[in-house]
Design a protein that fits this description.
The chain starts with a helix and ends with a strand. With about 400 residues, the protein is an alpha+beta fold. About 40% of the residues are buried. The strands form 3 sheets. The protein has an 8-stranded antiparallel beta barrel with strand order 9-10-11-12-13-14-15-16. The chain has a 6-stranded mixed beta sheet with strand order 3-2-1-6-7-8, with helices on both faces. Helix content is about 25%, strand content about 30%. It contains 9 helices and 16 strands.
């Protein structure tokens, strides 16, 4: 039976079955076609039987007006070309599902390919998530549309167009991987040379062009290994100031690495050592690591509230200033929130921020030490948005410092 006949015979069982059976057949015959069908999986994994599903490689029809909505976060997805493996597509499907569950209305998503062989990067695609806030939905539901359809009726199609473009961008990386020559790479420290940090820095301009929080999702083995620095280098000397050496700072950004694995065999300490390397490296570049491992640890939550504060910290009679940015879901749980203090560093915070009858309370933990050498610290503040918040940061019962915050927006 031909591949086309196989696809038709399963049409009534849902689109995922179509792709699965065609994938198995074409995996033997033609890898490029496998990847095209893989993109179709990303796009057509919605409800079966829809006649208005977007067509692969067709006119997108994506409504650009969603990019006009004011947002308080953007997402950048970096895909390490050297980490992409033929036949392994589960990570991309998981990434799509995670984005679908966490994007805010109008949030811009950009896909960038990292090329560690050369220390460069290439932007592949960018678009804004087609969705409406609860307030916008309520307003649209009450309006009458005599000469056009209600935009809510087209939302599922628009979201299909969005992931059509996303899937096509990811497929470009797979197709280029087929043409690569990974076995020809030079080695450093007994492992393949990978200028991953340099590749990220090559896209650094976007971090200086916005004051939005940037959620950075990196699919990579995280195996930085070059003359600049290496996860395999066991030297005890201080970590170089990569921000200064590369002239790049990832301000207002939080990094989530997934797909992490060693490029050396039998390397049981790799995860801990590479995590330590990237935590220190990004600290010198005004950023922080909130997630690191084989799986993507982004929480399935959508932020609906954002507040930013100017902060003042009294540390041993030294007045320091900085910024505090809190984003929360509908329950007040913190999402992609952070605190940055001049001369001390930048950390992500988890916990809760709630305002009731004008009084706001913040209870949070940092992902690393900021005012002490502890692995984590407690940040507790209380007050009003008009008069400001006050509290302490540090290790309760050991050492804490007073901190105040005044609302900016």
């Amino acid at each position: 039976m031909s591949p086309l006949c196989k696809m038709k015979s399963h049409l009534g069982n849902g689109r995922s079955m179509i792709v699965f059976h065609c994938f198995r057949w074409y995996h033997i015959k033609n890898t490029a076609l496998v990847l095209m069908f893989f993109t179709g999986f990303l796009v057509f994994s919605g409800p079966k039987g829809r006649a208005d599903s977007p067509q692969l490689f067709g006119t997108t029809g994506l409504d650009q007006s969603f990019c006009k909505d004011k947002t308080f976060r953007q997402t950048v997805v970096y895909v390490d070309a050297d980490s992409v493996q033929k036949g392994d597509t589960s990570w991309a499907t998981n990434l799509e599902n995670k984005l679908r569950a966490t994007l805010t209305p109008g949030e811009r998503v950009t896909v960038v390919e990292l090329l560690p062989d050369h220390g460069t990067s290439s932007k592949l695609w960018s678009a804004c998530w087609p969705n409406y806030t609860a307030t916008q939905r309520a307003k649209l539901a009450k309006e009458n549309f005599f000469f056009s359809s209600n935009p809510l009726n087209n939302l599922e199609k628009q979201q299909g167009f969005f992931f059509n473009g996303f899937g096509a961008a990811i497929t470009q990386v797979f197709l280029r991987e087929e043409k690569g020559h990974k076995n020809d790479r030079s080695t450093v420290n007994g492992a393949p040379k990978e200028e991953l940090l340099e590749s990220l820095a090559s896209d650094g301009a976007r971090f200086s062009q916005t004051d939005e929080t940037i959620r950075v999702i990196v699919y990579s083995n995280a195996a930085q290994n070059s003359a600049l620095g290496s996860v395999y280098d066991a030297r005890t000397s201080p970590m170089p100031d990569f921000g200064k050496e590369l002239g790049t700072y990832f301000r207002h950004s939080i990094f989530y690495f997934f797909g992490v694995h060693s490029t050396k065999p039998n390397d049981p300490n790799y995860l801990a050592e590479s995590h330590a390397f990237w935590s220190q490296a990004l600290a010198t570049m005004s950023s922080t690591v909130a997630g690191f491992g084989s799986d993507l640890s982004v929480a399935n939550e959508v932020p609906v509230v954002e507040k930013r504060f100017h902060v003042s910290l009294d540390r041993n009679n030294l007045e320091l200033s900085g910024l505090l940015n809190v984003m929360t879901d509908a329950d007040g749980d913190l999402i992609d929130s952070w605190l940055g203090i001049t001369r001390l560093g930048f950390v992500s915070i988890t916990g809760s921020y709630k305002c009731d009858d004008g009084t706001c309370v913040l209870h949070a933990s940092t992902n690393q030490g900021l005012v002490t050498t502890s692995n984590t610290e407690k940040l507790s503040m209380k007050g009003t948005l008009t008069k400001g918040l006050s509290g302490t940061i540090g290790v309760p019962g050991s050492v804490t410092f007073p901190i105040t915050a005044s609302a900016v927006r």
